Amino acid sequence: MEGGRSKIKRLDKINEYKLLEIAKNISEYAFPGMIVLLYGDLGTGKTTFTKGFIRSLLKDDSLSVTSPTFALVKVYDNDYKIYHVDLYRLSDPEEIPYVGLFEDSEGIYLIEWPERLDYYIPDEYLEIKLYYNIEDMTKRDIEIEAIGEKYKIFEEALK
Ligand SMILES: Nc1ncnc2c1ncn2[C@@H]1O[C@H](COP(=O)(O)OP(=O)(O)OP(=O)(O)O)[C@@H](O)[C@H]1O
Ligand SMILES: [Mg+2]
């Protein structure tokens, strides 16, 4: 693996508005072929992050972005296509080739429940881990890491 793993940021007690803002800041550094893996328990904000990211790229603050729970993938058209993927209902990684993940080398992929990728996990990606804040149920703690050299640019996005 090129570049290995490097911590970018840990942020605690993030409210929903702030999470949307973080997503926007990251989207400003988005590049074709970018992959974002969103880890976190049910309701921690994976879709919320994706909504902030896609709204920012499409410059549409009222765009409806909901989880593609049954279809697994939802595609948004932009300069580069944006693929919002939710693997919650994927029962077997053998199904991944049928979902058509990572076939668009210029596409941007945001993936909820990336644990389901198993051995299809990409070599390089931006890792976002969301946790419930233990003191306040309306807040989240977030850890962001770059896996691979080219994802280190997101340090700039979060300064
Ligand atoms: N600080 C916060 N950050 C994100 N979401 C928050 C926050 N506080 C409250 N919420 C609420 O928590 C919910 C998060 O839902 P969201 O669909 O983004 O989670 P998810 O991780 O995608 O869940 P799932 O695993 O079901 O896909 C929303 O209803 C949102 O309004
Ligand atoms: Mg979701």
TrEMBL record:
Cited Pfam families: TsaE
Entry annotated with the keyword Nucleotide-binding: yes
Keywords noted in UniProt: ATP-binding, Cytoplasm, Magnesium, Metal-binding, Nucleotide-binding, tRNA processing
Domain of life: Bacteria
Location in the cell: Cytoplasm
UniProt cross-references to Gene3D superfamilies, sorted A to Z: P-loop containing nucleotide triphosphate hydrolases
Keyword tRNA processing annotated: yes
Coiled coil: none
InterPro entries reported in the protein's UniProt record: P-loop_NTPase, T6A_TsaE
Family indicated by similarity: Belongs to the TsaE family.
Family matches, as PANTHER family: TRNA THREONYLCARBAMOYLADENOSINE BIOSYNTHESIS PROTEIN TSAE
Protein name (Swiss-Prot/TrEMBL): tRNA threonylcarbamoyladenosine biosynthesis protein TsaE
The species this protein was found in: Marinitoga aeolica
